[in-house]
Amino acid sequence: MSLHYDVDAVVLDIEGTTSATGFVxxxxxxxxxxxxxxxxxxxxxxxxxxxxVAQVREEIGEPDADAARIEKALNSWLDEDRKxxxxxxxxxxxxxxxxxxxxxxxxxxxxxxxxxxxxHVSGVRLxxxxxxxxxxxxxxxTNSPEGDLTSxxxxxxxxxxxxxxxxxxxxxxIARATGLAGDRLLFLxxxxxxxxxxxxxxxxxxxxxxxxxxYFEQGVxxxxxxxxFDEITVSRSTT
Length: 239
Fold this sequence. Notes:
This protein is of the alpha/beta class. The chain has helices at 21-33, 36-42, 47-60, 67-80, 85-101, 112-121, 134-142, 168-178, 192-200, and strands at 3-6, 9-12, 125-129, 155-157, 185-189, 204-208, 225-226, 232-235. The model has no long low-confidence stretch (mean pLDDT 95).
């Protein structure tokens, strides 16, 4: 049975939804862990790096923390899979370089890209809202196995420009940024807390449950669930 939504935009989570969490954890996390020290040493003067370092110092309560202490904090957060904004910023910079060098190619489930293209052609706008930084999202969609997909996207949101993913206000913020009412937006995610927050903001929300993903057994609460994107039909109202 196919679900049908009359909406103007679909907002996509990445890990567990468009792409395998295992790829991020097993490939991207070790890649960034191995390069934090070099990034902190070689690009400390970059405004984005400097801002992230200041955020780490503030979060750990150590205003004089040196690069070694910053790296230790980043690795600790990585071990916890903590969605800390400065960690995501620095990972995004490292991954962007890795994608640009050809070290990395992103992962998408087979059912995702054909549907994204079909939805885009039908006039539905596509956005990304991920805990990964905007830089990481852009690199991810630029360097897919099927080439550059960024032309399909109308905007990118992360925990810095939108807010925490389990806070309804973040979804209100995205709605205001897109100029769309909540009931014209559909959010796809594998995490029940995120789906709850989107629904609380007046959005449509559908859970994506893929075998092998961390949230598969837990389920998506009382939200409608699908196993693949081709179970969803979206179209804009013609009236």
